Amino acid sequence: MQRRLPELSYVNIFLWLFRAAIILIVLWGTFSKIVLGRGTEYTVAKWIDFFVAGLSQGSLYALIALGYTMVYGVLFMINFAHGEFFMSGTITATVFVAIPLATSGFLDEYPLAGLLVIILTSMTVSVVVALLTERIAYRPLRRAPRLVPLITAIGASFFWQYFFAGLFGSALVPFPRIDVLSGTWTVAGISILKTRVVVMAASVIMLVGLYFFVMRTKTGKAIRAVAEDKDVAALMGIDVDRTIAITFATGAAMAGAAGILYALLFSQTQFIMGFIPGIKAFTAAVLGGIGSVPGAALGGLFLGLIESVGPALFLEGLGFPGTHQLRDVIAFTMLVVVLIFRPQGIIGERLAEKKA
């Protein structure tokens, strides 16, 4: 019996044409920039600076994205309050620890010890906020339809934003300057900001540590078992509620550490500082493959690089003025592009109907 080929629908034809158009636009913009020399000319040092800036920003996105991807992997919900976990630890540690340490001179005398205390404080506050949110807002809704926890997460996000605005005010709170991290290091004749090197190094250490925690420890195995099937995990003697709480705490700890690294880069904190990085980190998690820890890391680095290099590489050749003001456009456009070509993300797996 002859097998019939599937017919192409108008939707499929449109998708293929749209994909082809995107590829042509990107190729033409890159060709115009590199070969025809359209747009602003940059030196090799400037391109390296773009690359390093993208890696440091992407490292932050990767750390924040871990919370989104871990919670989704276990509960199949998007925790839109995760950006506020990032914010809460950062602004609290800045006001109660970083500024007093800087005023007393301890931060200048013992910068490493002071920075470690600030990071641990931020991580602790973020973990407490995450555990309170999970216990009060999410746990009672665990068996509810998925739309209910999603709306609750948005409500929790606004609650924590304005709770901390009430505590610390709506004005910018400057993060104190650390003298030892000021200035640049010169590597192979290229000047790199010290803060960017610290951010990248700290991010790599934490990402590797988290990977080994999830893959090699007993608690990590319990998290993976609960992600596969909560009922079977409970029958095997795993405390599901405790494991889910640990998942929230782990993601929040990474976000709290990322918040201090963010403050080192941008030297300021505010009650609303978690919104944009949170949305970008969620974008990174989806880009890499939501539910995958390596995917979140890869998606964050990819997004940071595209944000930094993309405007100069893709858009200037097309004649767009002020391209670096369009970095957010590039970021979210890349999300759409990747999902059109690979809906499960860069290294994500196709989910079964039960998980999708």
Describe this structure in words.
With 356 residues, the protein is mainly alpha-helical. It has a single domain (10-341), classed as ABC transporter involved in vitamin B12 uptake, BtuC (Orthogonal Bundle), CATH 1.10.3470. The protein has 13 helices and four strands. The protein has helices at residues 10-34, 44-75, 82-104, 106-109, 111-138, 147-168, 194-216, 218-228, 230-235, 240-266, 275-288, 293-315, 327-341, and strands at 173-174, 184-187, 190-193, 268-269. The strands form two sheets. The chain has a two-stranded antiparallel ribbon. A two-stranded antiparallel ribbon has the order 2-3. A hairpin with a 2-residue loop joins strand 2 and strand 3 (190-193). The longest helix has 32 residues, at 44-75. The protein is globular. Residues 351-356 have low confidence and may be disordered.
Overall body shape: globular
CATH domain fold name: ABC transporter involved in vitamin B12 uptake, BtuC
What is the quaternary state of this protein? single chain
Strand tally: 4
In percent terms, what proportion of residues is strand?
Answer: under 5%
| Secondary-structure element series | HHHHHHEEEHHHHEHHH
